[in-house]
Specification:
Blueprint lengths: L1 H24 L8 H4 L23 E2 L7 E2 L7 H17 L2 E12 L2 H14 L5 E6 L2 E9 L2 H14 L4 E8 L2
Antiparallel strand pairs: 1-2, 3-5, 3-6, 4-5
Amino acid sequence: MYHYRLTMRYLFSVIIVISLAFISGCAVQRTSSTSQSSRYSEDLSVWRPKEQLPADTSKTTSLPDKGKTTYVEARHAINEPLNTVLDSISRINLSRKFIDGFTIQVYSGLDREAALNAKKDLSISLPDLESHIRYDQPNFKVKAGGYYTRLDAQKDFVAIKRHFPSAIVIPDKIPIN
């Protein structure tokens, strides 16, 4: 048993030495390529697009204030289809009453009196900020402001956080005026 362990250790060490020698022999030799990169040049001018003058010169007119510049009529105009799509988007947006945004929730709880007191304290401490109470059964929620981005809400959130440590910024629907 002892000779078996000794033989296994010997074989294991031989395998490690051979694998290390193999790995070190396969290492990539890196040479400095700075001298070669400074001599590299390739002519790509054959791939540059060539300017072609229009064959039909009846569509080109010269501008009155610049005698040498010519005006070329657009051949691939998409104005009409684009206007149709933009009009449909505009009609959809006019029908929307709300947009996704953010509000600052100052209070959320079951007690109506606590919600009224929180709204009163908020209007006293920050009179410029609009706040409202909303009842989502069974909770009363006092929310302040209506912001399109979280970054806009962050400025007022810092001021509210001084007076209401439990205030949070939450996603909400903002009415469009």
